[in-house]
Amino acid sequence: MNAETELKFRLAPRKLSSILRDGALNGRHSDRSEQALVSTYYDTSKQKLRRHGLTLRVRKVGDRYVQTVKADGSGAATRGEWEHEVAGARPDLTKVKNTPLADLASKKLPRKLRPVFRTEVHRTTEARRVRRSQIELAVDRGRIGAGRRSRLVAELELELKSGQIADLFRLARNVERKTGAELDLRSKAERGFQLVTGNGAGAQYAERVELKRELSPRNAFGVIAHSTLRQITANADPVRDMDSEGVHQMRVGLRRLRAAISLFSDILPRASTERIKAELKWLTGELAPAREIDVFLKESILPIADQGVPNRGARAIAEKFSTERGAAFARAREAVESPRYRRLLIDVIEWIETGQPRPDDDRSIAGYAAAVLDRRIRKARKQGKHLDDLDPMRRHRLRIKIKKIRYAVDFFKSLYSDRDQKQLANLSDQLKQIQSALGSLNDFMTHRELATETALAAPPANRRALAFASGFIVGRDREAARGLMKTAAGELHRLHRLHITPGK
Predict the structure, then answer these.
(1) Which terminus of the chain faces fewer neighbouring Cβ atoms within 10 Å, N or C?
(2) Distance (Å, rounded) from C-alpha 56 to C-alpha 78?
(3) Model pTM?
(4) pLDDT, average across residues 410-421
(5) Which is nearest to 167 in space by CA: 5, 383, 9?
(6) How far is CA 373 from the centre of its chain?
């Protein structure tokens, strides 16, 4: 097995040629080579290999055929790779012994495998010497094809062949600074499968986190953090397209990563983690107005036209916030197009990859997860008993605690046996209801501030109409809040600690 440690970037095709230009990047370089690579990816009709975190391809390189099995790694930059030369374009499963695919290689599997998509790439590679490290720089131009669908490939890969991973990130930052290249966590295989299913465009949702019970807490955190970062980066294009769900899902990814940092705070290096948290908070803040105004417009403003509010007031307040919505989405787009965003991605990847567990920490994630969930649920139950006495700020903090528990259940659910999944699902549903009720209450507070500010700052010509519409929204939300408080209090009362243990 080879362990690939690489970073992949996407950039405008017109900038690819500058990557290999002499003097464009730091580091001594050696002779360049070029290859035409035609790769066919195989899986079953139900994508069994993909569901197990594996890819199988056969690549034609000149007159040779090379079969490769790849497995998802535990970090953002490293994954396992097993290569064997085969006789032809079809996979040869006799060559998959001692690979993760061996466990799935039943007698029926060869008959079920079929070509799913194909990549045709012209690759230019060059070896770079950065300090004492050897890094291969590869520029790929080509196309991914699945039936009648296709997608261009224009990317750069930096692979650490020997030396220190810090040098890989040193070169990565230089690439970003000089070319505007953006880190892309999707492999060609992932983009190919997205092409097959038609799920490559639009908002991208959180993927299931798979943890092995024998992992250390630090390594488990790496798997979780990588998964959340993938959700963040996968929604960059939808945010650029001013897709409201894309903005929401990038915010969800950011919240999940920040929740993971909180859940594992006792094992993370404090100084570097605080710096990462500050940058994640910045990006969250740049996206927040777009989401808040979008929800206010759709859920509070647009419906009032059918609820007895005079047309003049309904139209005036809708026009005002439609304009503000556009400005907020433009702000979100500018954030993900900024150098600061591109640097943040590299910083987070390096932080995930280079963090080391304490030498004396021999705990497994199974026991760690059970302790985290138990402690968090106990604290939430205690605070929830006094929900009616909490002011809006403390109620907001309780909502965040509930949200973190819900994310923790999602992060850790693969550690529990099949018979325990129902209890976890019930807990997750409870947490979702509490989070939804408290979240709506928090939205109402935000909407009240927006509506009040609108009424007070309205121009004389529309002041009365806007004041009426704003007052209607505030009054309606106040009435709805009573029911939400009752729902949240009831579910918090029913919230109980788990009586199951991971792996038992």
Answers:
(1) C
(2) 17
(3) 0.89
(4) 94
(5) 5
(6) 22
